[in-house]
């Protein structure tokens, strides 16, 4: 199993914010929702477009292109036109460091 790798610090993501980065050769979005952190691959499973600028409502991100929504906790699609999940990454916090592990 892959090891956790540091990708950012808590100071880089305000509560309710997000950070776009590259991890494991993939575009990734890290969200800070309340005290929790979630990380998903920054690509809509419906058409391959980035989710970077999509609206975040609670724990769901909306694809800005066609309106598909995904649960950032599980990657599960929440509405059409998406039917396939998006990849999620395991997140761990050590001190001020945010660590990810590839699926």
SSE order and pairing:
Blueprint: E1 5-9, E2 18-23, E3 26-33, E4 36-41, E5 56-57, E6 60-62, E7 69-71, E8 88-94, E9 97-101
Antiparallel strand pairs: 1-9, 2-3, 3-4, 4-8, 5-6, 6-7, 8-9
Please characterize this protein's 3D structure.
The model has no long low-confidence stretch (mean pLDDT 96). The protein is globular. The protein is mainly β and 103 residues long. Helices cover 0% and strands 44% of the residues. The strands form 2 sheets. It has a 6-stranded antiparallel sheet with strand order 1-9-8-4-3-2, with no helix packed on it. It has a single domain, classed as Rieske Iron-sulfur Protein (3-layer Sandwich). A hairpin with a 2-residue loop joins strand 2 and strand 3.
């Amino acid at each position: 199993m892959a090891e956790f790798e540091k990708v950012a610090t808590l100071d880089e993501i305000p509560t309710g914010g997000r950070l776009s980065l590259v991890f494991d050769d993939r575009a990734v979005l890290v969200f800070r929702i309340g005290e929790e952190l979630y990380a998903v691959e920054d690509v809509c499973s419906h058409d391959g477009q980035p989710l970077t600028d999509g609206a975040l409502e609670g724990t769901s991100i909306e694809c800005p292109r066609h309106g598909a929504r995904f649960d950032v906790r599980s990657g599960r699609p929440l509405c059409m036109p998406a039917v396939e999940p998006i990849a999620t990454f395991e997140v761990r916090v050590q001190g001020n460091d945010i660590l990810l592990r590839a699926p």
